[in-house]
Amino acid sequence: MNPPDNSRFSDQILDRIYRLHPKKIDLSLDRMERILAALDHPEKKLPPVIHVAGTNGKGSTTAFLRAILEAAGLRVHVYTSPHLVKFAERIRLAGKLISEDYLLELLDHCEKVNGDRPITYFEMTTALAFKAFADVPADVLLLEVGLGGRFDATNVIDQPLSTVITPVSLDHEQFLGSDLAGIAREKAGIAKKDTPLVVAPQPTEVLEAILEVAEKVDANPVVSSGRAWKYHATDSGFHYEDLQGVLDLPQPALPGLHQQENAALAIACLRHQKRFEITEEHIRTGLATAEWAARMQNLSKTSLAGTLPAGSELWLDGGHNPAAGEIIANLLRERKDLPLYLICGMMANKDTRGFLAPLAPLTSKLYGVHVPGEDSHSAEDIADMARETGVNAVAMPGFEESLDLIGREQEGPVRVLICGSLYLAGKVLALTQE
Fold this sequence. Notes:
Blueprint: H1 6-20, H2 30-38, E1 49-53, H3 58-71, E2 76-79, E3 91-93, E4 96-97, H4 100-114, H5 121-135, E5 140-144, E6 162-165, H6 173-176, H7 180-187, E7 196-199, H8 204-217, E8 220-223, E9 229-233, E10 237-242, E11 245-250, H9 258-271, H10 280-289, E12 297-298, E13 313-316, H11 322-332, E14 340-344, H12 352-356, E15 363-368, H13 379-388, E16 393-395, H14 399-409, E17 415-419, H15 422-432
Parallel strand pairs: 1-5, 1-6, 2-5, 6-7, 7-8, 13-17, 14-15, 14-17, 15-16
Antiparallel strand pairs: 2-3, 3-4, 9-10, 10-11, 12-13
Helix pairs in contact: 1-4, 3-9, 3-10, 4-5, 7-8
């Protein structure tokens, strides 16, 4: 007899939590502070915290941090969002995903503690994650911001070990606005007094806004300019430099030149803290072993690629804003050996035209799809917006049907990229069991 699938029970509790406060995002810390007090303040019992905010690259930077720290023999907690296939992906305890049994236990406990008082889904799940992180021993916690920074549910840590801001660009405008400097100030809200604030390369207006916040709270900015730290690409990888010295490093395991920047940011963070000793060997091992799903993930050897012509490639990326579109395009410009076909689904609140604009000149054809079960653009709308960017496009029932059609229509090898949404990426990975 098979054991019960507790993920189904945890999903039922999460559904109840969502109904208590159906607004997905409600920027305030009041409810978070209340439930943490009811849980006896687990946020005050955590291992040293590295807090990561930004628009693009948070997940990849966190993946590099985790890989390097684990290469140093440390036990690493990780909190990220959203999940792709199952909720447990969000919480990694001392190197392993939280078990469904423990997740169910925590959900039940936190639901009873909260009662019927309003709380958002992200606040409740962050609170239960903090309780797990406090109860399970580890050396360090990598804590990724959900949205923004200043009022994000994760921003209840009084004195983190370090804070990090990845590249800032437009996203979630309905909550953060469309003023880039204003968005940067929200992201910089994680800055804390006397704590390193390690900042990725940013546009001038963004950097100025971040430094303005850092000065107000007496944080210690570590900026990728001047002498603090810097990097540049080389023929074999990249060159990293700070006051501690120079490192000539190989291309990270995660594909794309943009991953050099994420890796360099992680290195800068770890070389500007004094708690843990991180060596060049740890860094090299971490760069070679870092993994992050749905970021130019190669699915060419999965069964999903079986309908494509021999020699074809199948890739998956969950990037969903104009900056992500430019990053993907920069990578694909280096790979013009095969014609590019896009299968794209995007949430209704995303800038589809902005995402597709840099990809349009590289694309032979686009297949627009709706993301099942989500508030996404219709397949027809995706196709229409793609045509506005100059791409030959057609609406399709789903990504599987799109792959089948590509396989029937194309005789030679092609490169297919499924893109536009982490929710769509989750549907793909659930089917491939990756």
